[in-house]
């Protein structure tokens, strides 16, 4: 029996939630290969019900439950896969915890304020994928936005920056020379700059009007190229875009 709730917890479970817990306990040897959707399907419930039942029993979600089922000497492939999936879960959870609601709302309001002017988005390296998707979605929302990851173009645009334009920088470490130089130019003319990065020690923060700092994982997937996950930056991008969509629907 993998879940052994106290009687007072059992008393709080609905009949459907008890069915979920009974199923989990009866199939604990199979759960490592299953998803929360599989459990929901087999118990004729929903993933939300499964998750709620697990949490009521003091387990912080399905992923934690699978970790409890691991055995050091059993199926190392399953253990490895669970650890890999947990890495993404940690990145997402830690990033959301680090988001300042005040900063987020300031950023949303600023972007809306500059909707009828020009918005420039700068990035470098693998982070360009995040910035490109962000700009694509802003364009769909009728914003006049341009993205570039070319260092010479970044410097040229920043040198000739107009204080009536809005600038947004996506950067993983926040130390990229070209982006720091651009931030200095933007700061010199008192234009507004939004920075999304994964380091609270980023030089860019010094020049930012507003900023969001995502979680930075110490684990690098492809170590010889130092390619670190950009999932945290994608999460920041998505939250901003989703909130802009919500605001648009309220108008």
Automatic annotation (TrEMBL):
Single GO MF descriptor: DNA-binding transcription factor activity
One GO BP: carbohydrate derivative metabolic process
InterPro entries: Homeodomain-like_sf, HTH_RpiR, RpiR-like, RpiR-like_SIS, SIS_dom, SIS_dom_sf, WH-like_DNA-bd_sf
Keyword terms of this UniProt record: DNA-binding, Transcription, Transcription regulation
Record-annotated HTH rpiR-type domain positions: 1-76
Matching CDD domains: SIS_RpiR (cd05013)
UniProt xrefs under Gene3D superfamilies: Glucose-6-phosphate isomerase like protein, domain 1, Winged helix-like DNA-binding domain superfamily/Winged helix DNA-binding domain
Protein name: DNA-binding MurR/RpiR family transcriptional regulator
UniProt source species: Pectinatus brassicae
Source lineage: Bacteria, Bacillati, Bacillota, Negativicutes, Selenomonadales
